[in-house]
Amino acid sequence: MKINSNYLRLKDSYLFSTIAKKIKAYQASHTDADIIRLGIGDVTLPLAPAVVEAMKKAADEMGVKETFRGYGPEPGYEFLRDAIAKYYASKGVNVSAGEIYVSDGAKSDLGNILDIFDADNKVLIPDPVYPAYVDTNVMAGRTIDTARGCEANGFKPMPESHYEADIIYICSPNNPTGAVYTHAELKEWVDYANKCGAVILFDAAYESFVSDPTLPRSIFEIDGARTCAIEFNSFSKIAGFTGTRCGYAVVPEELERGGAKLGALWNRRQCTKFNGVPYIVQRGAEAVFTDEGMKQIKANLAYYMENARVIHEGLESAGVWHVGGVNSPYIWLKCPLGLSSWEYFDRLLERANVVGTPGAGFGDNGEGYFRLTAFGDKERTKEAVRRILADLK
Ligand code: PLP
User: Fold this and answer.
1) Is there an atom of ligand 1 within 6 Å of 252 CB?
2) pLDDT tens readout for residues 249-294
3) Minimal-distance CA residue to ligand 1 atom 5
4) Does 40 sit in the ligand 1 pocket, CB within 6 Å?
């Protein structure tokens, strides 16, 4: 037998293990160091009470013969698909419940969607980038081209005439950079994709952090997107479901390639390889969109965004070039003093006892940059910013 040798082409990801090793080594020789971690991409606030209540109620139903549920519908229960469609309507976006496919999260969907596309398709991926986009395509043996993010384009790469793309990844608000595309910028991508027949895989995992009403929170706010885009979203960041697991893909009815509706292909793929998200979790996800749930969730988002504001304004006051921190929980800064990403990591760890994530870990174009996140504790974040600024003086 032969293995899928594409797996041998995957680059080992040393980013988070190297960070952990460096912290451990530093702590071993500085046992009383008070280290603050601003590198985490995971949420820290607990599930909202409305979500917990809904899941408890659903668990009780599962213990009673009359209300017990076995296998559910693969694309998700109607109650959740309807609630998601209403959430889109509240953003001014018209999406029908039938176009929504519930899953165990955006990471799985973003990888699994590739099953419906030919391995010969050319892929365009921004750099720096959320690493899963690259690795899932390497696994399938696809040719990858890079859309370069840099200071000049505000880490928002735009279409270029030399690209040859069948599949295009866009993540906005972006992880790791925190950059957010405007309507006009997304319109350029949509027009480009429609012109060349490419499909945009739009990762909207951080849309709930956008508070500026002039910025898009869905690719489907853009005219023409329904014929060229699939959107991926998640309850992970809006509602702290990183460990609970629930997300969804939106595949418009009109989206067709090679004479086939992509929604039908995706449904076929999911029905064959996926047996749905637990009823209890879907009831919890539904509760996110109730008035009470939304109120509680907005308080959590505001907590994180206050951290983002503290980091953003601190860096601004010190004249450190950065993007993000506004409409996004990520802050992407240029390493001071011309340091490389890892040099700045070491310096911050040793001199400020603050941990962030070296930008070089997100792609070649991340070298010289550094990611901070707003998912930490409020007081600790303030203290971390105070230390970062003190180190710059
Ligand atoms: N997309 C981006 C850009 C992310 O940063 C993450 C998680 O950090 C995900 C997707 C994964 O989301 P989920 O927890 O729904 O799998």
Assistant:
1) no
2) 999 999 999 999 999 999 999 999 999 999 999 999 999 999 999 9
3) 175
4) no
